[in-house]
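Thread amino acids onto this structure.
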């Protein structure tokens, strides 16, 4: 067993490193890591339906699609992430309880009684402190999860305050749960760095780690390429979402707008706009948005080029642009 010593706080790099280690090594691996504030969505989710897009835009929060399924999570330095990558044989590839047992055992050393509940959660006193997900690649399994230690729960709740009701799709939806920080259950206060260190020492000892490995310059270059070509791209993080229909309503400059938009493989394929309940012609769609990427910069340019809804005179154009997201 190898422990990968990853000190990066870059969420793009960290998510890409997991895929790189899964697909380009043959060792059994444990890794602990943290990231700057970011939203990590499951592989089969509709990104826009899972996040508070206005909050993400204003706070410039990275949104990254991971390799595994499951629901959306919020990362910040107060959230400890653990990764297990193992070679498996037979039909025992997926084993959420088995992979989370070391986490429960470690928390017991801190006099915390955590339980595995539901499909992939760890809870203390009924409150979720950890979510887990898995991905199988050939005969290797990537299992990763979170531990909310002293994360900013206000930002967490705001960042993933979704508008699912506005969307229709076959995408996987997150199961929202009440969450809590591990730090709040400790009898004696502990700094997150001490928690991280003790967790690391526990895993190294209990898993009989034989090597502590720091990613080489060559590793970092290859991971960086994966970030550039995949994990930092709009195509992967947003465009990979399953086909969806979005309906938004709003009043702008005294006009009631209703926008119904269909997005397939990240591109706008259908658009219906109503002003004061009257359907508008398809000229705007056909001339400006038909089969264009469903991205804010593309929609903003189209709206301004057409001066749709007199957008060029609005003090806050985003109020109109936001109807398309």
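Threaded sequence (325 positions):
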């Amino acid at each position: 067993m190898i422990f990968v010593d990853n000190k990066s706080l870059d969420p793009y790099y960290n998510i890409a490193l997991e895929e790189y280690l899964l697909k380009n090594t043959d060792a059994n691996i444990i890794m602990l890591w943290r990231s700057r504030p970011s939203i990590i969505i499951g592989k089969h989710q509709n990104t826009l339906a899972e996040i508070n897009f206005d909050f993400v835009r204003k706070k410039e929060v990275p949104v990254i699609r991971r390799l595994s399924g499951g629901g959306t999570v919020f990362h910040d330095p107060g959230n400890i992430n653990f990764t297990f990558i193992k070679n498996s044989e037979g039909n025992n590839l997926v084993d959420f309880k088995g992979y989370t047992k070391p986490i429960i055992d470690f928390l017991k050393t801190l006099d915390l009684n955590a339980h595995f509940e539901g499909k992939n959660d760890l809870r203390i006193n009924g409150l979720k402190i950890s979510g887990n997900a898995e991905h199988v690649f050939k005969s290797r399994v990537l299992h990763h999860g979170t531990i909310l230690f002293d994360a900013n729960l206000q930002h967490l709740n705001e960042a993933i305050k979704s508008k699912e009701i506005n969307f229709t799709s076959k995408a996987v939806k997150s199961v929202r749960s009440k969450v809590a920080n591990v730090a709040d259950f400790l009898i004696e206060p502990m700094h997150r760095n001490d928690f991280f260190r003790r967790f690391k020492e526990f895993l190294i000892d209990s898993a009989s780690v034989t090597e502590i490995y720091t990613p080489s310059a060559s590793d970092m270059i290859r991971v960086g390429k994966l970030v550039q070509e995949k994990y930092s791209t709009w195509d992967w993080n947003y465009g990979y979402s399953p086909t969806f229909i979005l309906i938004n309503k709003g009043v702008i400059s005294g006009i009631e707008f209703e926008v119904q938009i269909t997005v397939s493989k990240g591109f706008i394929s259908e658009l219906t706009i109503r002003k004061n309940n009257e359907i508008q012609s398809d000229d705007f769609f056909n001339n400006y948005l038909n089969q264009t990427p469903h991205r804010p910069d593309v929609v903003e340019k189209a709206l301004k080029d057409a001066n749709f809804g007199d957008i060029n005179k609005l003090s806050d154009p985003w109020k109109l642009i936001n109807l398309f997201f």
